[in-house]
From TrEMBL:
This is Glutamate-1-semialdehyde 2,1-aminomutase. Keywords: Isomerase, Pyridoxal phosphate. Its cofactor is pyridoxal 5'-phosphate. It comes from the Bacteria. InterPro entries: Aminotrans_3, PyrdxlP-dep_Trfase, PyrdxlP-dep_Trfase_major, PyrdxlP-dep_Trfase_small.
Length: 435
């Protein structure tokens, strides 16, 4: 830790004015986090003047890294004109046109300021549309901090029966919240069918991230998603995709990649070009719950900074630069790293597997077949190895998420990816030697 004296000093200062020195649980690191000072392309400099390859990219949102000229130009042009108005702007129409153009099943969209809000609005829209209270969600999947979306986020082994028990993530969660969230195991069609046959007429929708990061970054099977759509629709319930992260998988998001047509989609992260953003998109019939033109809508929704033109302009620049060629580049780098890491694990006889798709991957230090959240639940050895992996990469100039997530960015070259892979191979070698 003493290789980061300036970050340590900043953390000591932060502790006095923020609980645990922290204002965002996800960036907490024991004993203290590395404080960022600036970024350029795929690199970030910290308070101690050290440079890192950034494989977190603000938890997947900075898909073009830092200082991308088109985004900078759009934002610089908007700043002197005004950053937020109590009136709509043309920019929101442009971004709405672009996004609905990329997602064939999504006719309309509505913006917000975070992915949490995007998911919250999607859940509330499903309830408003169906007039039903319950949602179904996947065990271990993260969807932001709306109470209902948080249920069973860190469901521990004691709660894993045939059917998961709905557990509170935060202390003090009302029992009513748990009662209105049904948790199901991932990629398990029969469990979903059982839930719907038992209480289908109370279910507003199924919330699913097609490659849930915190639940292991394991892709959903297409047949599972197809059956999910059929089962939900037969019961009059909706399918809600959380594409806050997975929209970075292809030009048409995960739904394009899997060929599924959800009823609603929550978006966030990359669509704001580095600024706070969220959105809910959906079929016109469902999105009508927000429509205020004939009096109070079924679902009113505001937001002081919603669709502010800085976010909208930055988002437009980011999205326009995300061409099919940009996705092909990200896919190539992702494949190179996944293949390289799996080859290294095999060579070192270190139990583990690198999973993910496109620009996203995670390393799990388990010898078990990787199928779902439960299969990657880390025991003491896996926890120690994950910690050593994160720390070893930090020492070799690579930033990753503490739980093993990596997100690549478009300014990375094949040369950069080779250097990242070499740092990962060195770190894995060290872990193998330590046993
Ligand atoms: N859904 C998913 C899948 C996410 O990964 C996140 C954030 N990491 C959210 C929702 C919430 O987004 P935000 O942090 O912008 O509220």
């Amino acid at each position: 830790p003493d290789s980061f004296p300036a970050s340590r000093r900043l953390f000591e200062r932060a502790r006095k004015v923020m609980p645990g020195g922290n204002t965002r649980t996800t960036v907490f690191l024991d004993p203290f986090p590395i404080y960022a000072v600036r970024g350029e392309g795929c690199r970030v400099w910290d308070a101690d003047g050290q440079v890192f390859y950034d494989c977190i990219n603000n938890f997947t949102s900075m898909i073009h890294g830092y200082g991308q000229p088109e985004q900078v130009a759009e934002v610089a042009a908007q700043l002197p004109l005004g950053t937020a108005f109590g009136a709509p702007t043309e920019s929101e129409i442009e971004l709405a046109e672009l996004l609905t153009g990329r997602l064939p099943a999504m006719d309309q969209i509505r913006f917000a300021n975070s992915g949490t809000e995007g998911v919250m609005m999607a859940i509330k829209a499903a309830r408003a549309f169906t007039g039903r209270p319950k949602i179904v969600k996947i065990e271990g999947a993260y969807h932001g901090s709306y109470d209902f979306a948080e249920v069973s986020l860190d469901s521990a082994p004691g709660n894993w029966g045939d059917m998961p028990v709905s557990t509170a993530y935060a202390r003090g969660t009302p029992a009513g919240v748990l009662a209105d969230v049904i948790v199901v195991p991932f990629n398990d069609t029969e469990a979903l069918r059982a839930v719907f046959s038992r209480e289908g007429d109370t279910i507003a929708g199924v919330l699913i991230d097609p490659m849930p990061n915190r639940a292991g970054l394991i892709p959903a099977r297409r047949d599972y998603l197809e059956e999910m759509t059929r089962i939900a629709h037969d019961a009059g319930a909706l399918v809600i995709f959380d594409e806050v992260i997975s929209f970075r998988l292809s030009h048409a998001g995960a739904q394009g990649l899997w060929g599924i047509r959800p009823d609603l989609t929550a978006l966030g992260k990359i669509i704001g070009g580095g600024f706070p953003v969220g959105a809910v998109a959906g079929r016109a019939e469902v999105m009508a719950v927000f429509d205020p033109t004939s009096g109070k809508p079924a679902l009113p929704h505001g937001g002081t900074f919603t669709a502010n033109p800085v976010t909208m302009r930055a988002g437009l620049a980011a999205m326009r630069a995300l061409t099919p060629a940009a996705f092909a580049h990200l896919d190539e780098l992702g494949d190179m790293l996944r293949d390289g890491i799996n080859a290294a694990l095999a060579r070192l006889a270190l139990p583990g597997r690198c999973v993910g798709l496109g620009s996203l991957f995670r390393v799990h230090f388990t010898a078990q077949p990787i199928t779902d959240y439960r299969s990657v639940w880390p025991g003491p050895v896996e926890k120690r190895r994950l910690g050593a992996f994160h720390r070893g990469l930090l020492d070799r100039g690579v930033l990753s998420a503490s739980y093993g997530l990596f997100a690549l960015s478009t300014p990375m070259t094949r040369g950069d990816a080779a250097e990242i892979l070499s740092a990962i191979e060195d770190t894995l070698g060290e872990i193998a030697r330590q046993g």
